[in-house]
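User: C-alpha cells for this complex, please. No commentary.
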Amino acid sequence: MNTMGNTFYRIRHWSRLAVAHAICLTVASACVFPLMWMVSSSLKTQRTIFSDPGLWVSNPQWSNYYLAWTRGNFGQYFFNSLLYTVLVVGGVIIIASMAAYAFSRLKFPGRNLLFILVISTMMIPIPGSFIALYVLLNKMGLIDTRLGYILPQINGGLALGIFLLKTFFDKLPQDLEDAARIDGCNKFQVYMHVAMPLAKPAIAVLAVFNALAVWNEYLLATLVFSRPELMPLQKGLMVFQGAHITEYPLLMAGITISIIPILTLYFIMQRYIVAGITAGAIKT
Amino acid sequence: MTWPRFRDLLTTYLFVAPAVILFVVFSLFPFIKVFQLSVFEWDGISPDMKFVWLENFKTALFHDKSWWTSIRNAGVITVLALTFQNFLALVLALIVDREIKGKNFYRVVFYLPPVLSGIVVGLVWNWIFDGSHGLLNHFLVFLGHPEWQRAWLADPATALYSVSIIHMWKGFGWGFVILLAGLQAIPRELGEAARVDGASELYIFSRITVPLMLPVFFLVSILTVLGTMQIFDIIIATTNGGPGFHTEVPITRILAAMLGSSRFGYACSLGILFGLLLLSISMVQMKLSKWSSRYS
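Assistant:
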C-alpha cells in the first residue's frame, strides 16, 4: 500500500515536471525560432529565400554578410553605433557617478531640491518633449551632428544612473572614505580612488542598461540624422529596408550583424541585467 | 564666508554641475518649451509664430479623427498586452518559480526578445508575416490551408492584431523576469507551513501568493500600460501606421504632425494630451493598488 502510494506520487511528480518543461520549452523555442529563421534567411540567395522556407541552408551565401557590410553600408552604421554606445555609456557613468557621490556624501545648499529635480524625469511621462528637443537641437546647430545625438542620450541615462548610484553610495560604510580624508586625499581623490572602485557592481548594471538603450535607440536618430554616414544601426536598417524593399537576404544579414554585439553583451552580463530590471522596477 | 569655505563649496558644485546643466538644457527646457509651443501655430522654421490660444487642443479633441483612432489602436494593443502577455508571463513565472530546474536558462531565453530593438523585432516579423513568401503563409500551406494565407500586416482585418502579437512576443519576457523576482521574494516557509497544515495548492495560491504579489501585479500592469501606449518602433518597422490608419498609434501621429505636415504647435498639443492621458491612467492604477492592498 505504501509503495503504491509512493509510485503514485512519483508518477504525479514526474508528469507535472514534464508538463512544466513542455510548456516552458515550447515558449522558449517560440522565442528563439524567429531568430534562427532570420539567420537562415540571411544565408539564402535572392531566389532560394522565396522558394525554400526551410531552416536548413544547403548552400550558405556567406557573401551576403560581406555585401551587407560594404554595399549595404552596415559597416559604417556598425562603427557609428559602437561609437555612440561607448561615448554615451562613458558619459553617463562619469557624470552620474560624480553627481550621485555629491548627493550622497557632500553637503551643500540645495542638495535635496537638485536631487529631486534631476531624478524627476523618471516619474513624469512627457511623450511630446522630443518635439521641443528637436527644436532646441536645431537652434543649437546640433542637427546632423554626432554631438546632437550623444548629449541628449547622456542626459537620458542620468536620472536612473544617479538614483541607482546614490542608493549604492548611501549604503557604503563611511569609514574608508574618512580614513582617506585623514590621509590627505581631497574630495575628488576620495571619489575617484575609494568610492568608485567600490561601486563597480552598480556601475556594471548601469553600463549594461545604457548600452542596450543606446544600441537600440531609434526615435532620436530619426530626428537628428539625415546624413547616412552618421546614422546608427537601427536607423540604417530602416534606410536599407526603404531602399531595397525585397532584398530580404541582405536585410536579414544586416539585422544579424546588428544584434551580434548586443546578444554577446547580454549573454556575458545577463546576471547584471536581471539585477537591473529588478532594481529598476523597485524604483518606480 | 571665508575663502577656503567658498572654494570648498565651489568644488562640491563642480560634482553636480555637469548633470544639472545637461538636465536643464535637455530635459527641463524642452519640457517647458512644449507647453509654450502648444499654443502657437508654427512650422518649426519660420520666424513668425501665430498665437492661437487653445485652438490646437480643440482641433485635436474635436476635429482629428486619426488622433482618436491612434489612441484606440494603442488601447487595443494595451488591453491585449495586459491580458494575454501578462497572463503568459505569470503562468511561466509560476511554473519556473516552483520545482523546475533550469531557472536561469529559461530566464535568459525568455528575456531574449526584450533585449532586441523594436526595429529589429519588427523587421524580422515583417518577413515572417510577409504576404507572398512569409513563414506563416508557408506554414499554412504546409497545414493544408492555403486559402488562409494573407498579407497579415497589410490586411485591415489582421494588421492591428499582427502588430499586437509582435509586441507581446517582444514583451512577455520582461514581465516574466519581474514577476519571477517577486515570487522568489516570497519566503518559502509560508507555503510550506500551509502545506503541512493541509492547505490545497489553490488555497495557497489565492491566500498567500496573490496577496503578497499584488504590488508586483500592479507594478507590471502600470509599466505595461505606459510602455504599450507609447509603442512606436515596431509599428515603424512593420506597417508604418497602415493600411489606412489601422495601426496608427499616438507617437506615430505626433511624428506625422511634426515631420510630415510641419505643424509643430499642433504636435506639442498632441504630446501634452497624450502625456495627461498616461498620467491619469497611472494615477488611477496607483489608487487601485493602494486600495487593494488595504483590503487584502
